[in-house]
Amino acid sequence: MIRPFRLAWLALCLFLLTTGLVSVAQSPAYPLPIGSPVQVSGSLLELASQRLLAANPDSDTVSIVQPSGGTIDSEISVGTEPRSVALAPDGVQAVIVNRGDGMVSVIDLLEGTVTATYSVGVLPYAALVYGSSIVVTIQSEPSVILLDLKTGEQQAEIRVPADPAAMAIWGRYLYVTHYWSGELTLIDLDAAEVLATLSLGPDIAHSASIAIDRRSGLAYLPQTIPNWQMTAAAPEARMLPVINVVDLSEMRLLPERQIFLPAADRMVNMPSAALIDRGRNSLYVTQAGSASLSIIDLDTGYAVAHVETGTAPADVILSRNALSIYVHDRIDQTITEFDAVYRSYVDTMHSSAYLPDPLEQIGAQLFYDADDPRLSSQGSIACANCHLDGLSDGRIWEGTVTPVLRGSAPNTDITWLNEHIRQMQAGTGIEPAGVDAAALVAYLQALADEPAP
Predict the structure, then answer these.
(1) What gap in Å lies between CA 126 and CA 137, rounded to an integer?
(2) Which of these, 198, 208, 205, lies nearest to 161 by C-alpha position?
(3) Angle subtended by helix axes 435-448 and 358-367, to nearest 10
(4) pLDDT exceeds cutoff 80 at 7
């Protein structure tokens, strides 16, 4: 027999439910594969042997590096401008995205040889391996394609919004960032279909990485807010570096959890790669335009350390034993190692035995540098902000749409370039007769030789 007070309680609960004053917990829109590993795309990874595999875009090679002593065990020639490395499930094969010639190389890590080369289209960005399939983002289409790892046969083409870039695979879900718009697309890989595309704001750019916290189901995306519509904005307000946070179970932006890097750490430029360290509850974020790494406490949202890296850090990984942080410095073709416990510098090792053209390398360093007062008065904006990889951010600055530099004839008059730097970045400009001016011009001319999108 049900007692009267229990009847009254049941009646009250029924009333509250029917009137909407309380609600039943809703199932997540996208059930998360808690416990499954997460793969993320990038230019650096650690092998089972504890060696590092790194892409060298200026040498057209990938290298296997022994971090103890910084020895290059082997360097393998692949395609033009390799940018992304990924491991196959067997741990023996690796997949390399060659951005310059639109090819994907498959290499045997034990033999140190290229075993297959597949054409994928113009301006591929990143690759991961899902089972027996290679997953590649193609910016020129734009699309995500799946290829058979053994044969290169295309298995699926999934159309997505413009400029697909970095990727993460969690269970059957694929998350794709969109570089110039900051959007995030969710794809069901088994069904080969787009489930959702999330806008992270009206003006977000530079979305080159995604870090996923497997415990909380949150994604952290280093991005930039380019205030191109604020024509009177001061230089330090034109490029605002942030970390946006997304609830992946709902594909929902969490604005209250956004990390504004000038407040959390200091003024930095172009946050580029992110990594979760669950053991220390930390977020590692590299800044491509500031040549630095910020270590953020996820409990407080504030930095606990800030260390210098090489030029244009493109990736950051944590060693399997969680004792070392490795940062891949793309322009310098080096790997910087930090002690993860003491957050201190350990070593810098070369990732390639081949030296790029010295003048072009100096020019590339200038192109990515937001800390040089000749280029930026507040350390907040670099040439690469609007022209990364010689492409265009698609925005209108000072009444002009950002031009594409690849496959074109960029204006290399140093007087005009200095005026542009003063107007856009509030820098003092570069001495016209100096080596740095010649180097910047040489780098712009090298960009013009790259294939247009």
Answers:
(1) 6
(2) 198
(3) 90
(4) no
